[in-house]
């Protein structure tokens, strides 16, 4: 299936892989923001996941160990953020920015000596004949397990937030922490748990970048992916399904503009690269206009510190 | 007034090395500084300059003392870094990115006794030399190999930015691929980055999906190599560094920036007092451009052809841009047997005839 | 069990002691980091904190301190006013870029004409550009209630792409041999934001930063508007009863911080940087957010925080140069410093109490 010389099926299969790191990180950040915490340090957590995962995979020879280590590294960073903002009550915006700075520096230090090495290969899942199906084969049955995990996680996070009791508590904490506290919920514990999950997902996304997508380790290799993850959460209007759409849109625009160039369309690359952000703003305005003077899509307590006065 | 303060402190720091060059060299090591635009571990551009720095240390031992600053952004930070290097008593400073150009000129004006070397720029002064490599010579050889080996007759090229250096490379690769294989087409994708592994991987994937079975890159990460490897039947060439981790397939050859011979030569000239402000544009002949090992994946006769061309270019018997050549729009550029002068090449801003893509303006 | 008790007013003692304690803690942790990397810790710390101020060639570094701190302070002052009112502009980076583009556009359009009016016009254009970019989130906030945090952040990326587009397209130097980047405004006398005293680092941007500190101080402590801003931030409902219009406040705060970020960008492009290039923005807009918080949203605190931040940049470069510390170690060190400063700040607002288990 081609359109204007672009093979849409191959494009879809490519963008699924290239969007997976930001999809994982954005899902994590979604849960964090739903609990009322704004962690701008996604980039720092991702890059720590990238080096943590890469180093562990190279040393053990096992990509699975690598992904686990990447998730742990991201979680460690998130808990550092959690301690400073939730227990020591520092401002979240400033701490998140500092976390990114710290992560970029620390990962580069840990990464000395890992440059130019090839990681063990992450196998694709073998679906046998299914992979040869037209259209569906390349899109659905040709990936590694992390891609499927990311899709599973979209569903799981969506259900968790909308259907489970724990998800309800998490949202309550994010909407009004004082009320949640008055009801007896442990605001700080909930938020730390959300942060740990968010960090693990960002770390996993980073590890996917260094182990599969690129695959290699180099300093600063996330190159802004963490910031895109933040944009995606907003674009999604804080819904898991929207995160999937947003991640594929943001990943798709990059893949598409490169494909358009390869097919010899003269396109203004920079102007096209702006598009997803402009769309995000429009979506944001639409959401807030629809909810005018009523409920906002953003968690009401987003970014505010909580201190139980008694 | 300020200048005098600078000079006195510089002289004090660098001991006698500035005041009395002849005497000082016997006792004091020559201090040589470097600033890099990326981290030394980028395995590409900055890494290769760092290799050159280490080669100086190995060559001259105690007679030199080198320092470097990595990840220096272009702009005011570069100006400060260069000043810091000068104040710290370095008497020869290599600024290894195009974007440092105006910063080098500013600092050089303040430190007339310090020599500066600026990579890939075009502004010179009494104490500012420039140097660059004829990367396009390596591209001619890649084009030959690519033209012979491609089965789909589509060659992909990942460009960084549409600047003359990259345009030279695209043209040289295309001309030589066409020469051995008239059916060849060239696809160009601009990544608008020198280094972004994820984006480079996407660019390689886009070219491979377009049917290219050769991917050349003018960006510095090995991500396109990994993508080509995944695809299986695609060949690539190392860029900046040898990228030999991906040999023998997909990487079948490379264009290596080898700054070591030049750096050794220039430091040598500083040591014996014969340094002058020159514009050096080195190529295969002077060893500044290396073509790496051509691997066993390349048929023997193609390899021989490629090596013969490298030899001819190195000896100056053959220029990769030899007429007759037309511009993309069909207007004549070079008459039969004619070669362009360096000034013309340095400002090259058009594709040659036969490339169908449009060069972004 | 440890329990935090909110103080009625910020502790005077801790307000002054926290920065000292945090810097000391960072020194300890940093010393560990440097030692682990095999570098002499004491020397590294001396190079970061002492040498740029009083070491060899300090007269040069002190000037550079102003160059580096100027834009940070200028931007942070504007941001702090908004933050005080609970209006979160985190897109200063974008406003900085657009201000620089606007200022440079004026200069590039008039090149090579010489006139004393060009520079003031550029300042105006820079302020206007930053203001206009900030009015987008302000308008969306007042009209639709859209979060200004997120809109201003998204607009940073739009501005970055706009910057790249300009550097490669319309603003490209026609005499630049096809290389990206505009003409260098340092070589255009009427547009050049030159040092006022050669070698001092003092340019109009630094003067503007000092004026911004004084201006913000007067606004916040002497002016009715400053009072309203504080009330709006601390007790939004009370503010509404007191007749403060939230929409006007939003427009004022975002507009002010945008304009200051815009002129900061303009002074930078016309002075130390000289050129519009695709990597022109050096994260000043984001770093300024940290500076604003380190300075506790107080103009004098911001002045100190901006200088401290600049010190770690310049001293960090020095340590890299003299000791061969990797650039990444400096980044990690800066990160630690910020963590400690932010974390210890708790002590100014809260009292730590020990109390028995009681539920």
Automatic annotation (TrEMBL), chain A:
Its main location: membrane. InterPro entries: ABC_transp_permease (IPR001851). This is Nucleoside ABC transporter membrane protein. GO terms for molecular function: transmembrane transporter activity. It is found in: Cell membrane. Keywords: Cell membrane, Membrane, Transmembrane, Transmembrane helix. The chain crosses the membrane at residues 6-28, 40-59, 65-89, 96-114, 145-162, 183-207, 227-250, 271-292. One of its GO terms (cellular component) is plasma membrane. CDD domains: TM_PBP1_transp_TpRbsC_like. It comes from Phaeovulum vinaykumarii. It holds the Pfam family BPD_transp_2. It is a multi-pass membrane protein.
UniProtKB/TrEMBL annotation, chain B:
GO terms for cellular component: plasma membrane. InterPro entries: ABC-Purine-Binding, PnrA-like, TAT_signal. Residues 1-26 form the signal peptide. Keywords: Signal. This is Nucleoside-binding protein. PROSITE patterns: TAT. Residues 31-305 form the ABC transporter substrate-binding protein PnrA-like domain.
Automatic annotation (TrEMBL), chain C:
It is a multi-pass membrane protein. One of its GO terms (molecular function) is transmembrane transporter activity. The chain crosses the membrane at residues 12-37, 69-87, 94-111, 117-140, 149-168, 202-220, 249-267, 329-348. Its main location: membrane. Pfam families: BPD_transp_2. One of its GO terms (cellular component) is plasma membrane. Keywords: Cell membrane, Membrane, Transmembrane, Transmembrane helix. InterPro entries: ABC_transp_permease. This is Nucleoside ABC transporter membrane protein.
């Amino acid at each position: 299936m081609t359109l204007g010389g672009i093979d849409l099926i191959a494009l879809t299969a490519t963008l699924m892989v290239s969007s997976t790191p930001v999809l994982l990180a954005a899902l994590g950040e979604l849960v964090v923001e739903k609990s009322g915490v704004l962690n701008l340090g996604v980039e720092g957590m991702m890059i720590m996941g990238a080096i943590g995962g890469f180093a562990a995979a190279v040393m053990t020879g096992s990509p699975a160990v690598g992904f686990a280590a990447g998730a742990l590294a991201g979680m460690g960073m998130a808990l550092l953020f959690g301690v400073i903002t939730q227990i020591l009550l520092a401002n979240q915006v400033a701490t998140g920015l500092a976390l990114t700075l710290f992560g970029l520096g620390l990962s580069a230090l840990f990464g000395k000596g890992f440059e130019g090495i090839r990681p063990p290969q992450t196998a694709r899942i073998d679906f046998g004949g299914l992979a040869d199906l037209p259209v569906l084969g390349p899109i659905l049955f040709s990936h590694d397990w992390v891609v499927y995990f990311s899709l599973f996680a979209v569903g799981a996070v969506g259900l968790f937030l909308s259907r489970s009791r724990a998800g309800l508590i998490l949202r309550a904490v994010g909407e009004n922490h004082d009320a949640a506290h008055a009801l007896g919920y442990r605001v700080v514990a909930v938020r730390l748990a959300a942060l740990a999950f968010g960090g693990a997902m960002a770390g996993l996304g980073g590890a996917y970048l260094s182990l599969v997508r690129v695959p290699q380790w180099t300093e600063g290799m996330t190159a802004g992916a963490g910031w895109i993850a933040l944009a995606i959460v907003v674009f999604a209007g804080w819904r898991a399904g929207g995160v999937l759409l947003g991640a594929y849109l943001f990943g798709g625009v990059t893949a598409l503009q490169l494909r358009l160039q390869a097919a010899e369309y003269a396109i203004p690359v920079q102007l096209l690269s702006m598009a997803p952000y402009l769309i995000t703003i429009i979506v944001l305005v639409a959401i807030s206009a629809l909810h005018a003077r009523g409920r906002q899509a953003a968690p009401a307590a987003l970014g505010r510190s909580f201190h139980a006065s008694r | 007034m300020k200048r005098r303060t600078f000079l006195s402190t510089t002289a004090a720091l660098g001991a006698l090395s500035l005041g009395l060059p002849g005497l000082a060299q016997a006792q004091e090591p020559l201090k040589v500084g470097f600033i890099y635009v990326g981290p030394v571990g980028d395995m590409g551009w900055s890494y290769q300059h760092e290799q050159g720095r280490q080669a100086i240390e190995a060559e001259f031992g105690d007679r030199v003392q080198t320092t470097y600053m990595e990840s220096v952004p272009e702009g005011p930070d570069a100006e400060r870094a260069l000043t810091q290097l000068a104040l710290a008593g370095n008497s020869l400073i290599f600024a290894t990115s195009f974007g440092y150009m105006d910063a080098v000129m500013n600092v050089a004006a303040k430190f007339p006794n310090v020599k500066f070397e600026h990579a890939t720029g075009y502004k010179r002064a009494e104490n500012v030399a420039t140097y660059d490599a004829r990367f396009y010579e390596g591209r001619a050889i890649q084009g030959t190999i690519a033209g012979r080996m491609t089965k789909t007759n589509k060659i992909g090229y990942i460009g960084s930015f549409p600047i003359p250096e990259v345009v030279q490379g695209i043209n040289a690769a295309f001309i030589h691929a066409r020469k051995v294989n008239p059916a060849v087409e060239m696809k160009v994708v601009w990544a608008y980055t020198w280094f972004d592994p994820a984006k480079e991987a996407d660019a390689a994937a886009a070219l491979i999906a377009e049917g290219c079975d050769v991917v050349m890159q003018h960006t510095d990460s090995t991500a396109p190599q990994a993508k080509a490897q995944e695809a299986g039947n695609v060949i690539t060439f190392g860029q900046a560094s040898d990228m030999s981790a991906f040999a023998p397939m997909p990487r079948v050859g490379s264009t290596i920036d080898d700054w070591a011979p030049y750096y050794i030569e220039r430091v040598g000239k500083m040591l014996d007092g014969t340094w002058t402000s020159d514009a050096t544009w080195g190529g295969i002949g002077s060893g500044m451009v290396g073509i790496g090992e051509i691997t066993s994946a390349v048929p023997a006769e193609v390899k021989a052809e490629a090596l013969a061309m490298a030899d001819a270019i190195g000896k100056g018997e053959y220029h990769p841009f030899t007429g007759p050549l037309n511009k993309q729009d069909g207007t004549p550029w070079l008459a039969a047997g004619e070669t362009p002068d360096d000034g013309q090449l340095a400002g090259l801003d058009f594709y040659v005839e036969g490339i169908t893509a449009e060069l972004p303006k | 069990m440890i329990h935090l008790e909110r103080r009625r007013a910020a502790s005077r003692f801790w307000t002054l002691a926290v920065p000292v304690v945090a810097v000391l803690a960072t020194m300890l942790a940093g010393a560990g980091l440097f030692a682990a990397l095999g570098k002499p810790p004491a020397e590294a710390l001396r190079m970061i904190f002492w040498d740029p101020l009083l070491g060899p060639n300090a007269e040069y570094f002190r000037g550079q301190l102003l160059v580096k701190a100027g834009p940070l302070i200028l931007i942070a002052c504007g941001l702090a006013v908004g933050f005080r009112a609970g209006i979160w502009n985190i897109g200063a980076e974008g406003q900085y870029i657009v201000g620089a583009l606007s200022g440079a556009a004026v200069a590039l359009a008039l090149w090579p004409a010489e006139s004393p009016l060009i520079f003031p016009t550029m300042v105006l254009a820079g302020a206007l550009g930053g203001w206009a970019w900030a009015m987008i989130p302000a308008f969306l906030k007042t009209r639709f209630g859209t979060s200004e945090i997120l809109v201003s952040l998204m607009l940073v990326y739009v501005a970055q792409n706009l910057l790249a587009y300009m550097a490669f397209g319309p603003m490209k130097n026609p005499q630049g041999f096809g290389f990206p980047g505009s003409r260098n405004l340092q070589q255009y006398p009427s547009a050049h934001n030159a040092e006022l005293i050669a070698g001092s680092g003092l340019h109009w941007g630094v003067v503007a930063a000092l004026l911004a500190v004084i201006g913000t101080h007067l606004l916040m402590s002497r002016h009715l508007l400053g009072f309203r801003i504080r009330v709006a931030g601390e007790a939004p409902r009370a503010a509404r009863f007191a007749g403060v219009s939230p929409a006007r406040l939003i427009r004022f705060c975002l507009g002010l911080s945008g304009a200051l970020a815009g002129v900061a960008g303009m002074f930078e492009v016309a002075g130390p940087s000289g050129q519009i290039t695709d990597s022109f923005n050096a994260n000043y807009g984001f770093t300024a957010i940290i500076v604003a918080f380190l300075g506790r949203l107080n103009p004098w605190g911001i002045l100190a925080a901006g200088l401290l931040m600049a010190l770690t940049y310049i001293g960090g470069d020095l340590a890299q140069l003299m000791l061969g510390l990797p650039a990444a170690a400096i980044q990690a060190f800066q990160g630690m410093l910020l963590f400690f400063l932010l974390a210890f700040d708790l002590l100014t607002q809260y009292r730590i109490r020990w109390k028995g288990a009681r539920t």
